[in-house]
Specification:
The chain is α+β, with helices and mostly antiparallel strands and 387 residues long. The protein contains six helices and eight strands; from the N terminus they run E-H-H-H-H-E-H-H-E-E-E-E-E-E. Strands 1, 2, 3, 4, 5, 6, 7 and 8 form an eight-stranded antiparallel β-sheet that branches. Helix 2 runs antiparallel to helix 4 and helix 3 crosses helix 4.
């Protein structure tokens, strides 16, 4: 026999049920959750793996952010190295120019030296007496003797200049070699910094991509695990089931509703926006406002998970059992393993072992859905019987 809540939230389905006259459910399976044969076998196991992967991803993203900041520091160092490279290249060019000039001076000095040596040799073949004898007067003699002395001095000067230029060329050459070695080392350090940081970033990017892929696979599994075999849910996107588009302010002061992002803030009863518990809390509140139940939805001590509603309801004196009634809040309890928070649904109709539920976030995307599913393994909170 079909039992349905008088204030059914989907009138189209009500009309279909009534016009049919008789609803045949024998073909629908009545067993509970199916096991998704993959890398996780329970909702808790899936959620635990998702949490672990999320932690790894957060750590990788944190490390990546640090690397990106470090890359900025590296880039500053690289820019400084590049400026240093430019300075070294300018020094090398100046050094090479100086060497060219010094070599030209050396070549000229050698040429001058050759001429001076030749003149000195010729003058050296004439003795002082011969110069005196060949001179017409003392003045001419003095001039010839002075010239010979000047030639000798020029030779000495040229020899000294050549020695100085050779030493200068040697210094310039050594400096050039050092500058070229420094340039090579600076360019190597620049390339090392770039390859080191880029390599690390690529590793973290790969890890993040891998984790996100694994999380998506686990999310798909947990959605399958949250959907009993034989259930038939219809999804309508972010809004549906009468959930308000704009409401609040919530307990944190923010505006909530289906027009806002999932978990953007908490609602008036301490539940995160567009989560299953936020929708069921709002449905209880609506029943109270319409006068169908005696008590409003309580605030059970801040942000609540679905599995906690069972104990909270019993502590408040709300009847809880495993026999569904239209208007109940159905709770899939946690398995006891880390990460499983259960699931909350509003029961609109009951037929044998099947219940028609309205719910949010069964797809883990914060969307609304409704449809028939098995009542096996669920607990039902009878707010209508709350005295």
């Amino acid at each position: 026999m079909l039992k349905q809540k008088s204030k059914f939230k989907n009138k189209t389905i009500v009309a279909a049920i009534v016009s049919a006259g008789i609803l045949v459910l024998a073909a629908l399976p009545t067993h509970g959750f199916g096991v998704f044969a993959a890398s996780c076998s329970t909702v808790a196991d899936c959620q635990q793996q998702i949490n672990s992967l999320n932690n790894q991803t957060n750590q990788a993203q944190s490390s990546l952010a640090a690397l990106e900041a470090q890359a900025g520091s590296y880039q500053a160092s690289i820019n400084a190295l590049q400026a240093q490279i430019g300075g070294l290249q300018a020094q090398i060019s100046a050094n090479e120019s100086q060497q060219t000039q010094a070599q030209a001076q050396l070549d000229q000095a050698k040429k001058t030296l050759g001429e001076d040596i030749k003149a000195m040799y010729l003058e050296g073949q004439t003795s002082t007496l011969e110069i005196l004898a060949s001179s017409n007067n003392i003045s001419e003699f003095v001039n010839k003797e002075t010239y010979r002395t000047d030639v000798q001095n020029k030779v000495k000067t040229s020899v000294d200049q050549i020695g100085t230029l050779k030493a200068q060329l040697a210094i310039l050459h050594t400096s050039l070699v050092n500058q070229q070695n420094q340039l090579s080392a600076t360019e190597s350090e620049q390339n090392r910094l770039l390859s080191l940081n880029e390599g690390q970033q690529n590793q973290f990017d790969s890890q993040i991509a891998s984790n996100k892929s694994a999380i998506n696979q686990l999310r798909a599994q947990i959605v399958a695990l949250n959907t009993p075999v034989g259930s038939n849910f219809t999804y309508s996107g972010s809004c549906g089931g009468g959930y308000p588009s704009n409401a609040g302010p919530g307990l944190w002061g923010g505006t909530w509703g289906c027009n806002y992002g999932e978990d953007n803030t908490i609602d008036n009863w301490g539940m995160f926006n567009r989560e299953c518990v936020s929708y069921t809390a709002w449905m209880v509140h609506e029943e109270y406002v319409s006068g169908e139940i005696a008590h409003d939805m309580p605030n059970w001590g801040g942000v609540g998970n679905a599995y906690q509603w069972i104990d909270d309801a019993e502590n408040a004196g709300i009847p809880v059992d495993q026999t569904p009634q239209p208007g109940d809040i159905a709770i899939r309890p946690a398995s006891g393993l880390y990460g499983d928070v259960g699931h909350a649904m509003y029961v609109s109709a009951v037929s044998g072992g099947q219940i028609y539920v309205q719910q949010y976030n069964a797809d883990l995307r914060g969307n609304y859905s409704e449809g028939w599913r098995s009542s096996a393994g669920l607990y039902f909170l009878h707010f209508a019987q709350w005295q």
